[in-house]
Amino acid sequence: ITFMNWTEYLCDFLEMEDVPELSGHISTIKRGHYGLLDTHAKLDIFQVLVSYALTTDLVREQLEEYIEQRQILSATNREAAVEEARKRRKQQQVLKEAASDAKGRTKGEGLDNDVEGNVGGSEIGTQAEDVSSKRKLTSNGHRVLPNG
To answer: Residue span of the signal peptide, if any (predicted)?
Structure first.
């Protein structure tokens, strides 16, 4: 706002506010004769300006309060979403570990059976040696069947 255009802003404001007592002074202000207005008219204009400023500040404060509440709500929702995602990832990891443990147990059962005396890796090797020792080959490469 400069000294030259403040009268335009003041007249525009008075027209927007549409106060009948003050609208008669708009033409005097536009001509640049603000000083010719009586003191009561100037005080009335000042009162309207201050009232508008206070109303604007109250609205601004209320808006700031609403914005702050919205930001808090958004942060809470974001934290809840992050926590939910963390729980899902942890649950998926537990399921993956359980699945890999189950696969490991299935593969490891044969080795466990070997220790328990069931047919396992070391007994298979022993049985293969027994079978190969029972197979006798003749000098021409034919197998001799055991009697029995």
So the answer is: none
Q: Is residue 53 scored above 60 in pLDDT? A: yes
Please state the domain count of the chain: 2
136 bridge partner residues: 144
Q: What are all long-range contacts of 59-66, with beta carbons under 8 Å and residues at least 24 apart?
A: none
What tokens does 41 get? 């008219």
* 1 & 37 share domain: yes
CB atoms within 10 A of CB 37: 16
Residue with structure tokens 């255009």? 5
- 34 close to 7: Cβ distance less than 8 angstroms: yes
Q: What are the pLDDT digits (tens) for 10-39?
A: 888 888 887 777 777 787 787 778 777 888
What's the whole-model pTM score? 0.39
85: in domain? yes
Task: Clarify whether residues 22 and 7 are in a common domain.
Answer: yes
